[in-house]
Amino acid sequence: MRITQRAVALTSLQGLGRNLDSLSNLQQQLTSGRTISAPSDSPPGTNRAMQTRSDQAAVAQQARNISDAKGWLEQTDSTLQTMLDATRRVRDLTVQGLNEGAGSEPRDKAIAAEVASLREGLIALANTRNQGRPLFGGPTSGSEAYATTGATAGSWRGQDGEVLRRVSDDEQLAINVTGPQAFGEAPNDLFTVLQGIVDDLGAGSGALAANDRLAALDDVMVGMQNAVAGIGARASRIERLEQINADRALALGSQLAETENIDLPNTIMKLQMVQIGYEAALAATAKAISPTLLDYLH
Questions:
Q1: What is the pTM of this model?
Q2: For labelling, which of 44, 178, 185, 195 has a CA lying 20 to 30 Å from the CA of 205?
Q3: Does residue 61 lie in a domain region?
Q4: What distances in angstroms separate CA 147 from CA 134, 181, 197, one per listed residue?
């Protein structure tokens, strides 16, 4: 088979074109720092990168959920601790009211007024909100967990149920405590017991003792302390999940870098080798297909 000068030239130019494409690709990788600039560069790598980015988005959302849950639990714990302090003050006042030897009508009225004031403050604390939602109202869409005015002041207005946050791919965590869980069920809830103490003090220490208000108050406080313990356990769980989430985010970042990022020393070495080969091919081609006078007589 006869090989013409034109065939040699075309073959040489095609080889130079391929070398130039390789050189251009390596230069682009060095410029961008990535091995994949388009799906056609590596379909399997593109698929892995897309899946990794999807996992990263899920982990980022879970991190926001964990942060929200952490804030909710911290605010709930702080509110319950404050309410416990106020309830302990009510207990001290109740013990004073039961002391018949030092009893007098003015004293009982003064104690009743302070307990009534503390009750109003406790109702306000029970309506503490996080991002517009009452902490102790359950999944309610309302703005109050407990009624604040009128004859029904202190009655629960929330809904039974859990406020959930997804904290991992396969776990949702309840971050709330409902009013009845924290303060008891009516008619043995905190606010009904406090109203009973106020009413009994108006009738004298004998009524306070007869209705055993101190024991009822102690039962309510045990329930509040249990709620604080439960919140603490969930807060510890959230801290562990926060660390797990952060570790997973780092792992996914490394995984994505392994898929997309270049190996800088190796890429530089390849670029130098291709460049040397391209320059050598240019020199060899120039000698193989040097122009003659016949090239200009067509």
A1: 0.78
A2: 185
A3: no
A4: 12, 17, 19
